[in-house]
Design brief:
The complex is a heterodimer. Chain A is an all-beta fold. Helix content of chain A is 0%, strand content 51%. Chain A starts with a strand and ends with a strand. By secondary structure, chain B is mostly beta strands. Chain B is built from no helices and twelve strands. The chains are: A mainly beta, B mainly beta. Chains A and B meet through strand 5, strand 9 and strand 10 of A and strand 5 and strand 6 of B.
Chain lengths: 113, 119
């Protein structure tokens, strides 16, 4: 049982480049989400999904795209990287109840130059 | 709009002393409440939660939290801090779908409180 696995752990991009952050979970969780963490800002929700084929926007969705083709995987795509997207990104998963805790990946530290 | 407030960006305590990390919330309905901890260069880890019942909930590593409905607070406490407790602590709430269209499973986080325990 690996939990939530994120790759890569570190990434440097040039402005305008695109990339995909991978997230996979092996707990059969319905709910998956992506957050970005910036100093003094806490965690801000980017996108989330309540099941395969269903995604929705969070607080800060601009510049990001997601899809959920399987229960296990929830990749986050940066369409055209900007310096403002320099951040630490976390993927999380949980059962879709409000009583169950979320499990977080180790994070991806992204720098856009 | 629902919100979670952690009024202190930093809390500093000496090892062996009690600690409190504060959390207040402003939401409609009856939220479920969580505390998560983040150690340096790691993801968030679940610490404890309040669903219903006893207002004092116990979690991992000697931590506990007290739910106070009238004050809409859920403060995290530890009677004897350890240097290894130094980390970033997040309070979070989970709402029902009836609460302003919230999605079941979605968490709303506070901004975090950096706890430093010195030897």
């Amino acid at each position: 049982n690996a939990g939530v696995t994120q790759t890569p752990k570190f990434q440097v991009l040039k402005t305008g480049q695109s990339m995909t952050l991978q997230c996979a979970q092996d707990m059969n969780h319905e709910y998956m989400s992506w957050y970005r963490q910036d100093p003094g800002m806490g965690l801000r929700l980017i996108h989330y999904s309540v099941g395969a084929g269903i995604t929705d926007q969070g607080e800060v969705p601009n510049g990001y795209n997601v899809s959920r083709s399987t229960t296990e995987d929830f990749p986050l795509r940066l369409l055209s990287a900007a310096p403002s997207q320099t951040s630490v990104y976390f993927c999380a998963s949980s059962y879709q109840t409000r009583a169950d805790e979320a499990f977080f990946g180790q994070g991806t530290r992204l720098t856009v130059v | 709009a629902q919100s979670v407030a952690q009024p202190e960006d930093q809390v500093n305590v000496a090892e062996g002393n009690p600690l409190t990390v504060k959390c207040t919330y402003s939401v409609s309905g009856n939220p479920y409440l969580f505390w998560y901890v983040q150690y340096p260069n790691r993801g968030l880890q679940f610490l404890l939660k309040y669903i219903t019942g006893d207002n004092l909930v116990k979690g991992s590593y000697g931590f506990e939290a007290e739910f106070n409905k009238s004050q809409t607070s859920f403060h995290l406490k530890n009677p004897s801090a350890l240097v290894s407790d130094s980390a970033l602590y997040f309070c979070a709430v989970s709402l029902t779908p009836a609460d302003r269209g919230s999605t079941l499973g979605r968490l709303y986080f506070g901004r975090g409180t950096q706890l430093t325990v010195w030897p």
